[in-house]
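Quick one, T. Sequence first:
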Amino acid sequence: MSNPFDLQDTDAYQSWRDQKLAHAISDTSELLVEVRNPLALTVAERRALLERCNRSNMALYASNTEIDENGLQQLALQLGLKRLDANWLAGEQGISRITVTESEGVRQSYIPYTDRAIKWHTDGYYNPEDRRIRAMVLHCVSPAMSGGINRVMDHEIVYLLLRDLDPAHIRALSCNDAMTIPARTDEAGIARPAQSGPVFFVDQGTLHMRYTARTRSIEWKDDDATRAAVTCLENLLASGTEHIHTVKLEANQGLLCNNVLHDRSGFTDDPLHPRLLFRARYLDRLSRE
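Structure tokens:
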């Protein structure tokens, strides 16, 4: 069976590459779908969201209807997302409230809960293999007064551009020891063991990416091929390619994605209406149909 992600199968790759580029969305406005009620998507709204996700692994939605964490779960369920990854800083429902938490010591030490910029990453890059994050929903309740802008990029396009530059980069970044996240410790000892794994990997027939641009507490494989591949990836993400979408989510807007690459600029809050986003991470991918 042909496999476009097999470096030896150039015919399958060229066919997949041509189709990917022909259908990929480069105009950010084309990602947006107006949704009347996120709790009860119409057939047309659901189809439009999934069509964009099938083409570019992401979609944006906008609504005039406010939703809470329960509503976010209901929206996601309609799109095939059932298995929430309830990480340790999430709320009781398994959904994280991303806001500045200056008075909460634990959260304050993690960048998403500050007003600082966050570098390029995929979510859950430190998770073990049996808890891979395959999809994510980021829903805006209240935007920042200024800043808080996300850039997002389809990881399949990242793979394509790197492979076109040099297939050796893909080979290096597909090694099982390409990137290691050291263990997280607390007063009780090891809270999360070290996690080694590839950047690119195929899971259930689809391409996934595991990455962070952080330089602190990240261990890359110490060889020339990996260093060259990481440098090329960093240059690609800094290049301003047309495949990078720039988005500032407003109230009642959100991002649905198959865990694409994304970052966040620093921001300034309105003291009366601080920035608040709901983030739901899933072990499922978005439905194909």
